[in-house]
Design a protein that fits this description.
With 376 residues, the protein is α+β, with helices and mostly antiparallel strands. Helix content is 51%, strand content 15%. A hairpin with a 2-residue loop joins strand 1 and strand 2.
């Protein structure tokens, strides 16, 4: 039937061009972005899958960076511990030298000067070794010195590292009198106050719940063999101590009349605390210092071994995370990325069809001209 108002051939050609143009537009978008899925209409399920994969991949990549940061952090701590080991070894060497009676009192005093300077440096390192502005060797980082590192894309995929408890020196102590020691701040739980009485005995007090007026404190004293003895002055009078948080003071009292001379007052914690309560001014003190230093060296070595093991573990964890991220990226690529071989073929097909469709639409429009011959 010959008609003019309705040209079905033109409509068919036009509709075909619209559909082909849509397909060609999608193909060109994929070729332009490199993605097979550019919106949910392209592949709703594929979009959801690839989005979850992207979350995992980005989380894994960040976890790799976390692991590498943790390794760097541990390297800083282990490097400081190495120097502490060197200083403890030198202090032990000085103690061995001081034990020999070939040294005079003045010789031992000179040796002790270096010994105490090295001890103070160990304490300083405990407070000043930092990562990202945070102390890492004074038991204050993380939870009681244990840091948690996120090494996975999801929650609870962590590794804990114990940085040990070397020392601290943010609490200082001064002698107000030969019966009162005043601290500049309230000590933390585990801080140890050490002091020397009458140049013949080191005493120590470990604080617990120091933020409250806990009254009496337990004084620890040992002889040159390391055995526990009663804290006493050179008159043989027992010494007791009490804590008052209001004035941040430790008050010493004796069981009977008599006085004592206090010296070498310091506050520390952890591995360094027992070392702070030693010197090598006499043969007996130097002998006692050896066992303390041996234990200190062992504690530092144990901490370094743990840190080294943690570094090795984190390196393997980092390598594994990179491998998982790589495989997850490959899997996402198969879902999300455009196949250029397929898409370029599709583009050529749609371009040819567009040219052909345009030509056919032109022919369909021209076919209506035949109706005019019927009117002549």
């Amino acid at each position: 039937m010959a008609t003019i108002n309705t040209n079905m051939s033109a409509k068919v050609a036009a509709n075909s061009l619209v559909r082909n143009d849509r397909t060609m537009g999608a193909t060109m978008e994929r070729l332009s972005t490199g993605l097979r899925i550019n919106s949910a209409k392209d592949d709703a399920a594929g979009l959801a899958i690839s989005s979850k994969m992207t979350s995992q991949i980005r989380g894994l990549d960040q976890a790799v960076r976390n692991a590498n940061d943790a390794i760097s952090m541990i390297q800083v701590a282990e490097g400081a511990m190495k120097e502490v080991t060197n200083m403890f070894q030198r202090m032990r060497e000085l103690a061995v030298q001081a034990i020999s009676d070939s040294n005079t009192a003045n010789d031992r005093k000179a040796l002790n000067n270096e010994y105490k300077q090295l001890s103070a440096e160990v304490q300083r390192i405990g407070e000043n070794t930092q990562w990202n502005g945070t102390n890492i060797l004074d038991d204050s980082i993380g939870t009681a010195g244990v840091s948690t590192f996120q090494v996975g894309a999801n929650a609870n995929q962590t590794i804990d590292v114990d940085f040990g408890n070397l020392s601290q020196n943010d609490v200082s102590a001064t002698l107000t009198s030969n019966t009162v020691i005043t601290l500049n701040k309230v000590p933390a739980d585990g801080d140890v106050l050490t002091f020397k009485v009458d140049d013949n005995q080191f005493l120590s007090i470990e604080f617990a719940s120091a933020s409250a007026d806990i009254g009496s404190l337990t004084i620890k004293a040992t002889d040159s063999t390391g055995a526990s003895v009663t804290a006493a002055n050179d008159d043989g009078n027992a010494i007791t101590a009490a804590w008052a948080v209001s004035g941040k003071t430790v008050t010493l009292t004796t069981a009977a009349s008599g006085t004592q001379v206090l010296s070498d007052v310091s506050v520390s914690r952890g591995t360094h605390a027992p070392v702070a309560g030693t010197d090598i001014t006499t043969r007996a003190f130097a002998t006692s210092a050896l066992s303390v230093l041996d234990q200190g060296i062992q504690n530092v070595n144990d901490t370094r071994a743990l840190l080294g093991a943690s570094m090795s573990r984190l390196e393997y964890a980092s390598d594994n995370l990179q491998n998982v991220s790589q495989n997850a990226s490959a899997a996402r690529s198969r879902v999300l990325d455009a196949d250029y071989a397929t898409e370029t073929t599709e583009l050529a097909r749609t371009q040819i069809i567009q040219q052909a469709g345009t030509a056919m639409l032109s022919q369909a429009n021209q076919s209506q001209q035949s109706v005019l011959s019927l009117l002549k």
